[in-house]
Every structure is written in C-alpha cells, then in structure tokens.
Design brief:
single chain; mainly alpha; 10 helices; 86% helix; 0% strand; rod-shaped; protein transport; t-SNARE coiled-coil homology domain-containing protein; transport
Length: 331
C-alpha cells in the first residue's frame, strides 16, 4: 500500500450520502435532479462544511477498519508466505491518519467559530435557538466521531508497540539463556550445550512458532473484543446523540403546535372582528338611510311651518285692522 492508494480511498462520497439520505426519508431524486441539482434550495455553509468533515471522518474510520488486521498482524509473515503490510506502509498510514485527524479537528474548530459568529435574530428567537442547539449537537457528534477514530488509531498503535516489544523479547531471550548457561557451567558443559542447541534448532523454532501462533490467536481475540467495545461505545454515543436530537425535535414540535394554536386563535379573532366590522357597516348604512329620511321629514315640516307662519301673520294683521276700525267707528 502506498500514498496514492491511501489518497484514492478518500474519494468524494457526497452523491452516495445524498442517495442514502433520500432513500431513508422516502424521497428519491431522479437522474435530472442528480445531474442538475436545484439551486433554489440553498444549503448553509455550516451544513456543507459539517457534511464534508463527517465524510472525511467516515472515510478515515473505514480505512482504519479495513486495514486493521493487516496493520495489527505484524508477525503473520512468520506463519505464512503471504505478503502483509510493511513498516513503511504502517508509518504512511499513521501519517495519513494523523494528518486527516488534525485537519478534521481544525475544521470542527472552524465550525464552532462559525456557529459563534452567526448573527442572532430577535424576530425568530425560537427558530434561531433550535438552529443553534442543532449546530451545537452536530459539532459535538463530529468531535465524538473523531475521538472514536483517534481511539481506534491509538489502539492499533499500542498493539503494534506491544507486538514489537514481544518480538524483541522473543529474539533476545535465547541469547540471554545461552549466556547465563555459559557463565554458570565450565567450558565442557558450555560446549555440550552449544552442540545441543545447534543439533536441535528446528525443534526450538517450531515450539516458538506454535507459542507465537497461540499468542497471536489470543491477541486477535482480544483485539476483536476491544474493537467490538469501541464500536459499542460509538453506537451508544450515537444513540445518545440521536436521543438528544429527538428530544429537541419534540420540543420544536410542541412549540410549533403552540404556535399553530395561537395562530388559529388569532385567525378566529380576526374572523370575529371582520364579522363585527361588517355589522357596523350595515348599521352605518341603516343610519345614513334614517338620516336621509329625517332630513326629508324636516324639509316637509319646515315647508308646513312656513305656510302656517303666513296664515298666522295674515290673521294678526286682519285682527289689528278690525280693532282699529272698531276703535274709529265706535269712539
């Protein structure tokens, strides 16, 4: 495995991720929408960057999981003739993993700064608060995924170190035993011991290989058990994150239900006010009609009063003339 193969494994899986998401949600994009995605639905910068970071972490975790056995089984070449991962390839894998983890950690810090620098909206406090909580949970989930990947890499490195130490001890133990035997006995015993060791080299090597095979089997079982524990912890953390997100979604749903109830009450009040306004308009029309009729009655009354005034004046003048005539005629 070389650097090109490692870099080739980190391909863009955005299309596959989108297909999986739409299949889960029950929505399937057609070929035209996949080739020419709609630009009307704008994706936020935070979502795009978080998806990129998540894809990088998943790719690195998948790469480490695929190369786990080849990386850990350092002594497999002693038991079979099949070629395994060399030390240079292991070092290259560690460098690539360290580089990608560092870049992912920086990207997560950038996401946190972007989330902190986001403008607050006073008119949409509920939506803004839920969006901030969602972004915070996303950043925490990405950080936990990165921690699990780092734990997997550290586990692989620790097993490599343990195997290197065990191999060094296995290679140094025969020479130590031989030196102690030569120092404790005389020259004759030491020569006999050397001849015995030289006459039976294959038996000692075969026993060591059998012990090594048994230890490797036990070690592989322990490694798989630890890997299973890591995966269980990761699943547990993911389940906890999903539970928290589910709780936040339930809170948002309850708030949206309250908002819909308030909106229904508001619409009911608006309808009642509209009915009252229509009634007031009808009353105003009736009042204007009554005022017009009253004006007509007033005009008729004023006309009648004008005729009566003329009659009254005529009667007064006639009566005054009669009184003057009587006063003149009958002094």
């Amino acid at each position: 495995m070389d650097g090109k193969m490692l870099l080739a494994s980190f391909t863009d899986r955005t299309g596959e991720w989108r297909e999986v998401v739409f299949e889960i949600s029950g929505e399937v994009l057609d070929d035209e929408e996949q080739d020419h995605p709609s630009t009307g639905l704008s994706v936020s910068v935070f979502s795009q960057r978080s998806l990129d970071v998540l894809q990088s972490i998943k790719a690195m975790h998948s790469l480490l999981t695929q190369n786990f056995e080849d990386y850990v089984n350092c002594n497999e070449h002693l038991l079979s003739l099949s070629s395994t991962m060399t030390d240079l390839e292991r070092d290259s894998l560690e460098q690539e993993a360290t580089f990608f983890m560092t870049s992912c950690a920086r990207s997560i810090e950038d996401l946190k700064r972007l989330m902190a620098d986001a403008p607050e909206s006073d008119s949409e406090e509920i939506i803004a608060g839920s969006l901030f909580a969602h972004q915070h949970l996303v950043s925490m989930h990405l950080f936990e995924r990165l921690q699990n990947t780092a734990k997997l890499l550290s586990l692989m490195q620790s097993h490599r170190h343990k195997q290197a130490v065990a191999a060094r001890q296995r290679f140094t133990e025969p020479s130590t035993v031989a030196s102690e035997g030569f120092g404790a006995k005389d020259h004759r015993d030491s020569s006999l011991f050397a001849k015995k060791v030289a006459s039976e080299p294959f038996q000692i090597t075969q026993e060591e290989l059998e012990e090594e095979q048994d230890s490797d089997a036990i070690f592989n079982a322990d490694v798989y058990q630890e890997l299973q524990q890591v995966l269980q912890e990761e699943n547990h953390n993911l389940l906890a994150d999903l539970q928290n997100e589910l709780d936040s979604v339930k809170q948002i749903e309850s708030k949206m239900a309250e908002i819909s109830t308030l909106m229904s009450l508001f619409s009911t009040k608006v309808m009642e006010q509209q009915t009252e306004i229509e009634q007031l308009g009808t009353l105003a029309q009736k009042a204007s009609t009554n005022i017009e009729q009253g004006n007509k009655y007033i005009d008729k009354a004023s006309e009648i009063q004008g005729g009566f005034r003329k009659i009254y004046v005529t009667f007064i003048m006639t009566l005054s003339f009669i009184l003057l005539f009587l006063h003149w005629y009958m002094p």
